[in-house]
TrEMBL record:
SUPFAM superfamilies, per database record: NAD(P)-binding Rossmann-fold domains
Organism listed in the record: Monosiga brevicollis
PROSITE patterns reported for this sequence: ADH_SHORT (PS00061)
Protein name: Uncharacterized protein
Annotated signal sequence range: none
Family: Belongs to the short-chain dehydrogenases/reductases (SDR) family.
Any one GO MF annotation of this record: oxidoreductase activity
Length: 270
């Protein structure tokens, strides 16, 4: 059957996507995975110049491999409600449909228990949780516009294994925010299933990004020692899962939180 061939199972060609925090790290990897496979991808980033540079780099790769996909930069600061509303408004000026929304923009905060400030919770819950909910809310009509039982629209929230297990670092606000986005994923999945919108979360383990650079620079050996597969993640580890969740293959998956962590969560602690 043609429907069981790889090209059909993982087809995202012609889909319209929005990836927040898409100018670097995990967001840039997911944006590129979609674009080189034919999707039209909008990326947001607080820094307009970085957003534009990333879009140009991915577009050059799409041109090189003759992919019909492309990337459009939509700079936005999602740390405020106004910034979320502006991004939704800017996106809807270009598109009536959003097939794929990836809530990746986020921040972290590490500080000892004794001095971990309320400001950490204010900032991280606003960006890592509230902004995700608010953007789904503002783009709900676009997510519904072309959704069907056979081909639902897709929301992917980027969580963390820090929201599933206990971190070695002093990331109290960050870990709480990621546990919150995991549960919000389940709640939204239950609410939006009848509208043909799937909602899933990816919970990455250690990946070499700007957010984890300081930790890996100081403790990479210790981090890798806690990973049963004995390595940090690489871009393809996340790109493949993104294509699964956003293609026909993932149409029957919703409400899941999927660790991509090299087995960290099942690593023996003793």
């Amino acid at each position: 059957m043609a429907a069981l061939q790889v090209d059909a199972l993982f087809d995202v060609c012609g889909r319209v996507a929005l990836v927040t925090g898409g100018s670097r790290g995990i967001g840039a990897v997911l944006a590129e995975a979609l674009a080189v496979n034919g999707a039209k991808v909008y990326i947001s980033s607080r820094k307009a110049e970085a957003c534009t540079r990333c879009a140009e780099a991915i577009n050059a790769e799409c041109h090189r491999i003759k992919s019909p996909g492309r990337v459009i930069a939509l700079p936005a600061d999602l740390g405020t409600s106004e910034g979320v509303e502006q991004l939704a408004s800017d996106f809807l000026k270009h598109e009536r449909t959003c097939h794929i929304l990836i809530n990746n923009a986020g921040a972290t905060w590490g500080e000892p228990l004794e001095t971990h400030p309320p400001a950490a919770f204010d900032k991280l819950l606003a960006l890592n949780v509230r902004a995700c909910f608010h953007l789904v809310q503002k783009l709900l009509g676009a997510l519904e516009a072309d959704a069907s039982a056979a081909r639902p629209s897709t929301v992917i929230n980027i969580g963390s294994i820090n929201g599933l297990g206990i971190s070695l670092m002093d990331t109290y606000a960050y870990s709480a925010s990621k546990a919150a986005i995991h549960h919000l994923t389940r709640v939204l999945a239950a609410q939006l299933a009848a509208r043909h919108i799937t909602v899933n979360a990816i919970a990455p383990g250690p990946f070499p990004t700007k957010m984890t650079a300081a930790v890996l620079a100081s403790f990479e050996t210790e981090v890798v020692d806690r990973v049963p597969l004995r390595r940090v993640g690489k871009p393809s580890d996340l790109a493949g899962l993104c294509l699964l969740l956003t293609s026909p293959t993932g149409a029957y998956m919703t409400g899941t939180v999927i660790p991509v962590d090299g087995g960290s969560l099942v690593s023996p602690s003793l």
